[in-house]
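Second attempt. The first submission of Alcohol dehydrogenase-like C-terminal domain-containing protein had a stray character pasted in from the spreadsheet, which I only caught after the job came back as garbage. Lesson logged: always re-copy from the clean sequence file. Corrected sequence (209 aa) follows.
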Amino acid sequence: GVAGFAAWLGIVLLGDPKPGTNVFISAAGGGVGMVAGQLAKLRGCTVIGSTGSDKKVQLIKDEFGYDDAFNYNKEADFDVALTKYFPNGIDLYLDNVGGTMLEAVLNHVNSHAKVILCGMMSQYNKGWKEREGVRNLLNIVGKEVTMKGFMELSYMNHFGDFSKEMQGHVVQGKIRSKHKIYHGIESFLESLESVFLSINDGKVVLQLV
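This time the job returned cleanly.
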C-alpha cells in the first residue's frame, strides 16, 4: 500500500544502503517504519528505530527485526541517546518526524550520509513560525551529507518495481505487517487522531464496508 511504497522509496530507491550500513528510522512502529526497517535488514544493514512506547520498542525488535530501538518519550536528550545507539555514527536516516530528532541526527551523521525526508509528523500541526528549526545544517556541508525529500506521486513510475519486489518478499515470508483497523466513516476522526498520538501498532486502516 501507500505506506509500504513510501518505505520502499526511502530505503531501496533513494537510500540504497549497502551491507553494513548503519540505518536509523524514526516513527519506526508506524506503517512506514515497520516496512522500512525490514527492507533495510534484507539489505544487510544494522537498523535502529525510535518509537513512542516501550510496547512498540519490543514490537519492532521482536516482529520486524530491528537490531535495537528506543522510546523517544523516555529520552531527555536525543544527542545522548544517539551517541549510545550509534557509537559509529549514522549512514542513512529515514526521517518521519522532523524537528528536534532531525537536528540531533545531524550531529551524528557520518561523512557522505544520506538523510531521506519522508515526513515530519512533529511539525504538521504547528504554524510555520511555531515549528522547530534545525540549527546545525552546517553539518551537511562539512560532512557532505545528501538530504532529500520526496513525494510518492513523483515516483509512480516505480510502483510496478515496488509491487513486484514486495510481492516476492511477502510470499517468501520476509516482510511482515501489522494493522489497526477502525470501522465505519464515523471512526474517521478517531483513526486520524490515533496517527498523531502514536497509539497504534503498525498501519492504520479505516474500513468503510
